[in-house]
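Researcher: Re-running this chain for the archive, since the previous output was lost when a drive failed. Same request as before.
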Amino acid sequence: MSEFNNRIAAQRHILQIVNCKRWRKEELLGLSSKAIDRWISVNQLDPEAQLAKLIRTASEKLFFLANKSQDQISEDYKLISKEIMDISRKIELEIG
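Model: Regenerated structure tokens:
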């Protein structure tokens, strides 16, 4: 259960970082690819911007963790968890 909580906490943390900024029209509501695409489109952001790329990368890594949450905590799981924290810091820097 702690892996699930850590993954959910990481998702919430990333959303909180992104949404601390006032966006033109809409906050980022989730980290699914559709939610990210909608957020980019509605706010007229550049889909190739560093922030968009970081958010997509975080989403992909969180998806990996979701699929591995039934497995024992492996070195891959630990490594990806650390990468997600690093990406969170980079997102924070991009937001300013």
